[in-house]
Design brief:
The complex is a heterodimer of chains A (156) and B (129). Chain A is 42% helix and 31% strand. Chain A is α+β, with helices and mostly antiparallel strands. In chain A, helix 1 crosses helix 4. Chain A is globular. The two termini of chain A are 28 Å apart. Chain B has 129 residues and is of the alpha/beta class. In chain B, 42% of the residues lie in helices and 20% in strands. Classes of the chains: A alpha+beta (156), B alpha/beta (129). At the A-B interface, helix 1, helix 2, helix 4 and strand 4 of A face helix 1 and helix 4 of B.
């Protein structure tokens, strides 16, 4: 595991635990490739000392669960259902900010875009899982998460 | 004295979490007002007095930085304490915010205890009445 991937994994697991009280464990993303169901893909871009994109893909059902945990409600509640996608975008936003500070130092300034969210098909999920740059996570033993960081160093 | 607080964030989830964290922390709240961007916040402040503003930075339509700059230009609004709640960790940006008059900075994710402390540090005895 590269040092950068180790940092990404650690930051993700920390944010997941502190924000939505879920526990993630790093696994080989390829082992998560064959999944059924509906998925959500959130992405955020950043510019500054370095530029790039951070993406997170999760099963749709996990979004509602994360929202419920964050809000202290039940997954089927109207509030958690309505704010499920918003919660995933916020998790990505928090993770990106925390990650960039760790990677670039606490004096570096970055500008982040507003996170965007789109639906992801099982085929799209499989492609993402098989991408060599993608990190895979098992969350609470029941959900799968894919993370992908693309960074472009600024030329001096 | 119970506080009127304005929470500014484009995420409805975050607005709800901040409101809930304030309640869990025992901050005396009379009313929570919400806005999803800086412009909405300024419109809200135009007709409502608040004791404290929590704001994110990165928002559509009008960012938190722009909103804070606009508040600083107004004789009345510049007296309203602002606490930034953001994902950013840049010391450079935090210093920039403080130079614009921001009273405190809370990094996400946060706990109710952290919110309690910054409210107490910002408002003093008013936050404990």
């Amino acid at each position: 595991m590269s040092e950068r991937n180790s940092i990404v994994a650690k930051v993700f697991c920390d944010v997941l635990e502190k924000s939505v009280f879920m526990f993630g464990e790093r696994v080989d993303a390829n082992t998560l490739a064959d999944q059924e169901g509906e998925f959500a893909l959130a992405s955020i871009r950043f510019t500054g000392q370095v530029a790039g994109t951070l993406e997170i893909a999760v099963p749709r059902a996990m979004c509602a669960e994360m929202a419920a945990n964050m809000l202290g409600t039940e997954p089927g509640d109207e509030a958690s259902t309505h704010q499920a996608e918003d919660t995933l975008k916020e998790i990505l936003n928090v993770m990106c900010g925390n990650l960039l500070t760790v990677l670039a130092g606490d004096t570096a300034v970055f500008d982040l875009t507003i996170p965007q969210l789109a639906s992801l098909s099982p085929e799209g999920w499989s492609r993402l899982a098989r991408d060599s740059a993608t990190l895979g996570f098992d969350v609470d033993g029941i959900s799968a998460v894919l993370l992908r960081l693309d960074m472009m160093e600024k030329k001096q | 004295m119970a506080l009127r607080i304005l929470i500014v964030d484009d995420s409805a989830t975050v607005r709800a979490v901040i409101a809930k964290a304030l309640a869990m922390a025992g901050v005396p709240v009379d009313e929570i007002l919400e806005a999803s961007n800086g412009k909405e916040a300024l419109d809200t402040l135009n007709g409502n007095w608040v004791d404290l503003v929590f704001t994110d930075i990165n928002m559509p339509v009008m960012s938190g930085m722009e909103m804070i700059a606009k508040m600083a230009e107004d004789d009345l609004l510049k007296t309203v304490p602002v606490i930034v709640v953001s994902t950013e960790g840049s010391k450079t940006r935090i210093e920039e915010l403080r130079a614009k008059g921001v009273r405190a900075y809370v990094r996400k994710p946060f706990t109710p205890e952290i919110l309690r402390k910054v409210v107490s540090d910002t408002l003093g005895p008013k936050a404990d009445e």
